[in-house]
């Protein structure tokens, strides 16, 4: 199928990584994203990129874009320690290095920076303000995607990469469940460019990811993003065609707790200003180690926003059609083991390879089935592992029984 046409619903990290891989392979691809622009809403800050994510990005990006990714990634080392609220070490963990990968396979990247890298070279392929409402399977075997503005587009494959509230999943797998995991998170950033800011943070909290667990399983997660070179110097040296916004060093600071521990309803929580969310956080870590409280107090209030943690319930394999799913659209998970983005990037790499096989003569249905079989294995393994650690460490709700 040399003239394969691929439609991707959703321009998040997974959808853009797939678009990059297909574009590099010469396959016709178009991405339809509901947001009106790439920077329309805050989608988070620091992301851990592990060996799966690094390998995927190396496979789907141009060599120049991959070098920009590696050069803009922070290398905080392999430590993922857990402390109590007085900073007594509960569990020390150092992840093994992966030879041949930058940072030994343990990187920290800024989400927006990675998104900008993934958008490079896709200007004509990404369409904004296009919210998919439904799709039709055509008698010819093609698929037509319909959007809220009344427009539509047809292709040979529709990939639902449209996130946790996926319209594609809701139509394709209406019995697939996404459930509330019982946790609420308050994401924020501590500016980290000055020497004063850096010395104020206890050094033991500056590993790849640090978890501090307090009374009633309230917790704070901390992770630094420290750049080795200014963005404009990276792109000028490696890939002048890649445009990156400026950013400065920061410490990602996430407070989390069971929903019932917040002294307000969800509606009230999600209506709070950043300053109000910071004050709420400080009230819930009162009496914790002074260095940790000081760190929380240094968050930029404008950076703080709330998130409800949700998780997919594993589903059994389905009959393969010209529609399939990728990333959070099928296997959203809690951040307890930090592999959600990596799993979506892995999806993009695997699906790119299968669609390249289809162009080379493998039947399309067979290629898509092979992707789904592999993706459902590692994807739902990650969902289960995330739920188990989240339950054990911070009282995340147990994962419901798998759906038939």
From TrEMBL:
Keywords: FAD, Flavoprotein, Monooxygenase, Oxidoreductase. GO terms for molecular function: FAD binding; monooxygenase activity. Gene3D superfamilies: FAD/NAD(P)-binding domain. SUPFAM superfamilies: FAD/NAD(P)-binding domain (SSF51905). It comes from the Bacteria. The keyword Flavoprotein applies. It holds the Pfam family NAD_binding_8. This is 2-polyprenyl-6-methoxyphenol hydroxylase-like FAD-dependent oxidoreductase. Signal peptide: none annotated. The keyword Oxidoreductase applies. Residues 315-379 form the FAD-binding domain.
